[in-house]
Structure prediction request, 51 residues.
Amino acid sequence: MINEKLPHIGIITNKKTRDGKRNLIGHNIGGGQVLEDYLFKYKIIVHYTYI
Prediction:
């Protein structure tokens, strides 16, 4: 959730942070698609696995 109001979807990618400890998240908050270290930036309310 963004600002405790808006749901937001992020996709965990196979790309890693520079230190190699976490996977980068692909998402778009309105400025275009980006890969960022956002896994724990916002509260996770649900997750899905797609195979």
The beta strands are 11-16, 23-27, 34-36. The longest strand covers residues 11-16. DSSP finds no helices and three strands in the chain.
